[in-house]
Amino acid sequence: MITVENLVKEFGSTRAVDHVSFSVQPGEILGLLGPNGSGKTTIMRVLTGFFPPTEGRVAIDGLDVGEHSLEVRQRIGYLPENVVLYPDLTVRRFLTFCAEVKGIASARRRGRLDEVMTACGLTEVAHKLIGQLSKGYRQRVGIAQAIIHEPRVLVLDEPTVGLDPGQIVDIRSLIKSLGGSTTVLLSTHILPEVSMTCERVIIIDYGRIIAEDTAEGLTLRLRGSEETRVRIVGTHAEVLDAVRSLPGVDAVREEGAVEGVVTLVTRSVRGDALRRDLAALVVGKGWDLLEIRPLPMSLEDLFVRLVHEDREGTA
User: Fold this and answer.
1) Contact 197, 171 (CB under 8 A)
2) Whole-prediction pTM value?
């Protein structure tokens, strides 16, 4: 449904997107994850026809964005990062205007307006001026205008910015409900968004793809370098020295020593092998082992490490 091939976008001497290629299958929800300034918004603006590519090809539903701009726009719903709304119109009048502009037949228009306002939680503010709405409700109006014409592809740039926790949950549910019937490309720098909403993740930094997988798959790829929590009954100094001396231990963090129980967190690239060595160490020393378990890497840890390793590799 979405095909991006060797995309490059330059602004003068600045290369905002650097040879990016990916595809999104029909009905899939794909997340573009990256820090602010990584190139996510630029990619979306090229996809939606706002910017022409410097190099490469972008296609929506098999149509080249540059050659078939009008047909592509008819297939896309777009929520930009800073959506432009009309503050002097009511919510219903604005969405009616959007439905007219997007070619929804008059016989279908009223029913579709009701569907969209219900889905986006706008029914109770239907007759309020947009300029009087909170930031959260304005964001909902932005999403409503993006989906009102039932697009085949939905492009959402930071869709939950400015929403309160309850609204975020509602919008996540709405986005997930669209998957399967609508292909969704979602851009965010908020890590929980991709794990809770997206089926697949592309991590972008400095305009380049540095990782692509499911959120779970990305975590598994880096599990070799992980933390292990161990609780040992023994003398603090002896336990600490012995654990630090094990091959492959990169760092040891103390979490306490209470009544003869030493709690440590180790970091190592050896994963399960280190845990076997820790168990053998405890048995060999005649200590008691109360706990030994891997600590799952959070998506935040994963993201920071991927970006750090990529920047070190290109320095």
Assistant:
1) no
2) 0.74
